Amino acid sequence: MSTSWTSTPAADSPLAEFPLGVVEPEYELWGEVDVDPAGLFGEADIPAEDRAYWDRARRFGLDEVRPVIDDYWDRSDYPFQLATRLGDLDLLRDGIDVEGYPAMSTLAAGLVNMELSRADGSVGTIGAVQAGLALRSVAYCGSPEQIAEWVPKMARAEVLGAFALTEPTHGSDSVSLETRATRVEGGYLLNGEKKWIGNGSTGGITIVWARDEAGNIRGFIVQQEWEGYTGTTIPGKLSLRAIWQAHIRLENVFVPDSHVMPGANSFKDTSKVLFATRLGVAWSAVGHATACYESAVQYASQRIQFGRSLSSAQVVQERLACMHSELATMQLMVMQMTRREEKGELSPVQASLAKYTCTRTARQIASNARDLLGGNGILLKNRVARHLADIEAIHTYEGTETVQALIIGRSITGVSAFNK
Questions:
Q1: Which residues pair with residue 5 across a beta bridge?
Q2: Pairing between β-strand 180-184 and β-strand 217-223 as defined by DSSP bridges
Q3: Hey, CA dihedral for 349, 351, 356, 358, is it positive or negative?
Q4: Are strands 180-184 and 161-164 parallel, antiparallel or unpaired?
C-alpha cells in the first residue's frame, strides 16, 4: 500500500491566514537622536567655520558611507573612492595648515574625527592615518621642499600616506624599534619590518621611522613602489576591516637624501606627532559611542516585546540613562581638552587621560548597546556590532590602555613604572 502526500490543499479547503505578527519590521537605526546631553554642541557653542566642517563630515557619513560600508567591512576591502572623497571635501588636514586651504581649528579637526568614526571606524582611521600621522609627520618634520611636494597631495588624497613606527616585536615599546638606517652615498639603506601600518599596502608613501648608526631615530619618506619595499595586507582582522593594515618588510630600500626628513632626528620628534594625534583618537571614540547610543535609543523605541516597546521597560531606561551619562562624560572630556590644546596648554598626560577615558567608556557604551539589541545586535546591518569590533582597535592603537595608565600613574605618583 502506498501513500501520496501533497503540499497543496484541496480546492475546497480554506487557506490558513498567515500570522503577520511574526514578520520582523525594518529597524531604522541611523536616524536623528539628541546626542548632546550636556548641551555642548549648540549653535552658540560651535563657531560657524567649525560647524561647516562638521556638517560636511556628517553629510558624507550619511550619504556616502552609510550605503556602502557594510559591504566593504564584510569583504575586508578598502573603499578607495571614500578616501578620495575625504580629500575632495577637505576633511584630510586634522587642523594642519596647508597652503591654499582655509584655517582649520583644533575643534573642527576633533568634530571631523568624531563624525567620521560615527559613520564608520575604518573610514575614521583612514582620515586619522592620512592626516593625523602621515601628513602631520611631513608638515612637522619635513623640509620646505618635502612639504610642498607631499602635503598638498595628501590633503587632496592624490597620494595615500602611511605611518610606520610599530614593529612586530615592538608595539608598546616602540621607542626600542630596531629597523635600521645605514648611511650610504646619496642616502640611506633601510632594513627591518613594521606591522599594523594603515595604508601601508595601498601604493602611496610610507613615513618610516628607523634607527641610524648613531642610535638616533630618523624619519624617511618611502615611496611604496621602491625596490625592496613589500607591504602585505594583514588578513583575518576582526576590527577596522575596511582599511588595509600592512606588514611591511624593508630589504635594502634605498632612500635618497631628498626623502630624508631633516626635522626627524630623535624619538622626541616622533612623539610630537603622536602627542598631537592622541586627542583625535579620543574624539574618534566619542564618534563610535555616539553611533552606538543613538542606535540603542532608536531600537528601544521600535522593538516590541511582551506587548510594549523596550523603551517602556524600567531596566532599559536605566541602561539608556547610563549610556547617556557616559556619553556626556566623554564629550565634556574632549571639549575641555580641546580648549586647552587651542590655548597651547594641553599636556601629554592630559592627552593620555582623554584617550584612556574615552576609549574605555566607548567600549562600555558599545557593549551595553550590543546587549540591548539582543540577537539583532550581532547583525552587521544593525550597526552596533561593527562599532563594537572597531572600538577594540582604537582602544589599542596610539598607546594601549595600560601604557596610558602608566603615563597617568607616573604623573600622580612621581614614580615611573615602565620597565627600564
A1: none
A2: unpaired
A3: positive
A4: unpaired
- Would you place residue 10 in the very low, low, confident or very high pLDDT band (cuts 50, 70, 90)? low
> Is the Cβ–Cβ distance between 66 and 115 less than 8 Å?
no
Task: Decide if pLDDT at 8 tops 90.
Answer: no
What is the phi/psi pair of residue 43, to 5°?
-60, -35
* Burial bucket for residue 302 (CB in 10 Å: 0-12, 13-18, 19+): middle
In one letter, which amino acid is 279?
Answer: L
Residues 6 or more apart whose CB falls under 8 angstroms from that of 235 comprise 76
Model pLDDT for residues 102-128, shown as the tens digit of each residue: 999 999 999 999 999 999 999 999 999
Q: Are 100 and 152 in contact (CB under 8 A)?
A: yes
Q: Nearest-5° angle of CA 154, CA 174, CA 179?
A: 75
- Nearest CA among 341, 280, 344, 267 for reference residue 132: 280
Compute CA 364 distance to the chain's CA centroid, rounded to the nearest angstrom.
Answer: 17
* Phi, psi for 389 (deg, rounded to 5): -70, -40
b/e map 225-259, b = 16+ CB within 10 Å = ebeebebeebeebebbbbbbbbbbebeebebeeeb
Cell digits of residue 227: 625596490
Q: How far apart are CA 369 and CA 22, in angstroms?
A: 24
